[in-house]
Design a protein that fits this description.
Layout: E1 15-17, H1 21-34, H2 43-51, H3 54-66, H4 68-71, H5 80-89, H6 92-103, H7 126-129, H8 133-143, H9 151-161, H10 164-201, H11 211-219, H12 226-234, E2 237-243, E3 251-255, E4 258-264, H13 276-290, H14 293-305, E5 308-309, H15 310-317, H16 321-334, E6 337-342, E7 345-350, H17 352-367
Parallel strand pairs: 1-2, 2-4
Antiparallel strand pairs: 3-4, 5-7, 6-7
Helix pairs in contact: 1-2, 1-3, 1-5, 3-9, 5-10, 6-10, 13-16, 13-17, 15-16
Length: 369
């Protein structure tokens, strides 16, 4: 469910940039599930996703997706292990009910379209919903589009939901296992770089900026779309969290009136801060989008024609729909292509300034100019 566009906060500042270790780690674990669908994620994500056993993968999906709102932190924590220890001390029924309370914030679908999540839960007869597996799945289908529901996974989730102590044991043991086996050494490696990004952004005064202006400076791209407008209008607080694993994309969590936006760790423009690891990390993300023959061919094709639809790009280059979608998503997220709706389709134009910025940043990093 975390992919569901339910976050639909005031447009005024303040916003903050913070390390947020619990949300940071949880999003890295979430990306392991998206590794097959997104190109350009960090090497740690792709490498770790490839070494998980089928049993680990399925259990990971159950905990991170099927039980997502039981796992999602509702406040800031000093570390991911501290948050997991907190989950272990909760009353099991309270942990389960935390997830159900979030589900209650989703109103039923109207004409097949999702509704914004509300901070005022609607009354739900939970005894009826939890009566059996079919009732539970029916409740989910009333609130989420079919593409967001894995029925087998949600059936497994139901078995945990009706047995809160087993659900708690599963969540805590799995998160500890993933931390100890895979994430703890990686966090030790990237934490200094992420703290550097936070310190650099602390030099920026966001006081006179709107949320959109602050967001544009932090993530270095426009966020004027309807989706982000709804999110910024609803949230009471917006916290931007630098991560080493998201590549060119943006992630988000929403809970208790706080919106956490996860972005690729970088240095803010115009701030004097010595952090070569951060500069290198951003350059790697940008160059990674260019280091593929099909993506270079797409950029050249769009450059030559001025603007092309996704269908025209697919046909011209002989790409499958899934391959074209994956490449176009990465090129758009990196900023090399600008995207707009035209005649019901997505159309793309080349952002020449972004390409020049990438080449200049690379030269500056390597040559010190």
């Amino acid at each position: 469910m975390p992919g569901q566009e339910f976050i639909v906060v005031s447009n005024a500042a303040p916003v903050t940039v913070a390390l947020e270790p619990a949300h940071n780690a949880l999003y890295s674990l979430l990306l392991l599930i998206r590794a097959d669908h997104l190109s350009g994620l960090s090497d740690w994500v792709t490498r770790t996703a490839n070494i998980l056993t089928p049993a680990e993968q399925r259990q990971h999906q159950l905990v991170i997706i099927g039980l997502h709102y039981a796992v999602l932190p509702q406040q800031s924590w000093s570390s991911f292990p501290a948050y997991v220890d907190h989950l272990a001390t909760l009353d099991p029924v309270a942990l389960r009910d935390k997830m159900l309370a979030t589900y209650a914030e989703f109103p039923p679908l109207v004409e097949g379209e999702g509704q914004p999540c509300s901070n005022e839960p609607s009354p739900v007869d939970w005894a009826a919903v939890l009566k059996d597996e079919d009732s539970y799945l029916g409740f989910l289908r009333e609130r989420f589009a079919a593409k967001y529901i894995d029925q087998e996974l949600e059936a497994q989730a139901y078995s945990s939901v009706v047995d809160p102590p087993a659900m708690q044991d599963l969540i805590v043991s799995h998160l500890r296992q993933m931390w100890d086996r895979y994430l703890a050494p990686e966090w030790a490696r990237v934490e200094p770089m992420l703290r550097g990004a936070v310190q650099a952004f602390q030099q920026v005064d966001f006081g006179d900026m709107s949320r959109f202006e602050a967001a544009r400076l932090i993530v270095n791209r426009d966020l004027e779309g309807e989706k982000w407008s709804q999110m910024f209008e609803q949230a009471e607080r917006v916290i931007f969290v630098p991560t080493a694993h998201v590549g060119p994309y943006l992630g988000k969590f929403y809970s208790g009136g706080t919106l956490w936006v996860l972005f690729g760790a970088r240095l803010p423009e115009g701030v004097q801060f010595h952090a070569p690891d951060l500069s290198r990390a951003e350059i790697l993300v940008r160059l990674g989008a260019l280091a593929d023959d099909n993506r270079l061919r797409i950029l050249k094709l769009v450059s030559d024609d001025g603007e092309l639809s996704s269908q025209e790009i697919m046909v011209s280059l002989g790409l499958s729909q899934s391959a074209a979608s994956r490449h176009l998503k990465q090129l758009s997220a990196t900023g090399y292509l600008s995207e707009r709706r035209c005649n019901g389709a997505k159309c793309y134009q080349l952002n020449a300034e972004r390409i020049e910025d990438t080449l200049n940043a690379t030269a500056s990093f390597l040559l010190g100019k």
